[in-house]
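Record type: monomer structure entry
Structure origin: computed from sequence
Chain ID: A
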Amino acid sequence: MADNITLSDLASGTLAHIEISKSSSGEYLVSTIHVVEEASSETSTAVDAVWTQATVNAVMSANNQLSLEHDPIEAWDWPAMTMDFNVANEIDLSDITAGMRLHIEITKTQDGAYVITTLHIQASDKGTMDHSQHEGAHE
């Protein structure tokens, strides 16, 4: 940790971005912590699930996770950012590849984790979503 970082100010469950820098001696240091959302004693937020669009950076099938660069999420006051998400067990990741554009539903669980509970692969040629695997449409 860099000298300016005080971990005692952070509570368990705080959502934060961290910046890691490489020092001149080759050590990696946490150099900045930006708090996105303070930890709360409540078990849920006013909005427990949101839809957004995201680009796949990596598929981690062994852990059932996706690394995504998602659009801003106004309901949670999140800027656009890159995050790793757990994916619900019923979602098949075998057709997902890096570079794909997705429409995703992110749900905040009671323990404060964020999980992708629904996803749709966007068609690359027209920018539309593939709704062939479910009924109804999402805006």
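Annotation 1: The chain has no helices and seven strands.
Annotation 2: The CA atoms of residues 42 and 55 lie 31 Å apart.
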